[in-house]
Amino acid sequence: MTTLHFAEGLRELVGGVDVVLSDIWGVVHNGLESFPEACEALHTYRSRGGTVILITNAPRPADSVQRQLRKLGVADETYDAIVSSGDLTRLYVADHPGRKMFWLGPERDNSIYRGLDAVTAPLEEADYIVCTGLYDDETETAEDYRGMMLKARERKLTLVCANPDIVVERGDRLIYCAGAIAELYRELGGEVIFYGKPHRPIYERAMALAGERQGHQIDRKKVLAIGDSVRTDLTGAREFGIDCLFVTRGIHSEEFEGLDQLDPTSVMELFGHPPMALMRELKW
């Protein structure tokens, strides 16, 4: 398949779809404001019997993500549940009691270990690293952490990445995320454990929650993923065996500017394996 379908709205794609697994950042909001039409689309789908699970690479637990959504005006009725990479990372921390953790990330992400029996320590004394992001993502890049990562590699520390995203939108800007540091560490020969898209555990957790809501095991042929990242959303959906609607207004917006159709060469360059459909902004 080398041609792409540009859908007018979600309504065209959800016939026979029982579950939508929707990205948040770039689809539902941009970090500063929510997208009303996207929220309406998901709410309408739910009102017609569908289940919406929000899956996000946010390095915070689901209740923290929900508080942010409420502040941005995203109603609870927009979705059934949230699964975050932060939740999965917290499970890792909980499963390693007594081991010393070096936490790398901004203060706003301290919920990653709040309430857990976690022992934090300097890099020189730590048993492993949990990375939720850059200390200052407004001014820093992963390169600012090369020296730190070289020291970590010398000590053969495992880095647990709580957000595999490389970049994310904040308003009209792109800022670096934990995934950028994790990829640098991996390039330097360090061991990395990734939680979140495109890795399987977050999809398995989302499907389990959807099955609880529906009251039966979910057929993957009846699941639609929605996202704006080739690297995380599209790749994750493809490897998990579910269809994907790709929203072009997100982190790849410049590459799609002014396009209403793509030739086969462009499809391969942008996607490799293309999504089932494209939409500039999610709407019903």
UniProtKB/TrEMBL annotation:
Keywords of this entry: Hydrolase
Q: Which InterPro entries match?
A: HAD-like_sf, HAD-SF_hydro_IIA, HAD-SF_hydro_IIA_hyp3, HAD_sf
Q: Please, which domain of life does this record's source organism belong to?
A: Bacteria
Q: Which GO terms describe its molecular function?
A: phosphatase activity
Q: Which GO cellular component terms are attached? A: cytoplasm
Q: Which Pfam families match?
A: Hydrolase_6 (PF13344), Hydrolase_like (PF13242)
NCBIfam families listed in its UniProt record = HAD-SF-IIA, HAD-SF-IIA-hyp4
Protein name per UniProt:
TIGR01459 family HAD-type hydrolase
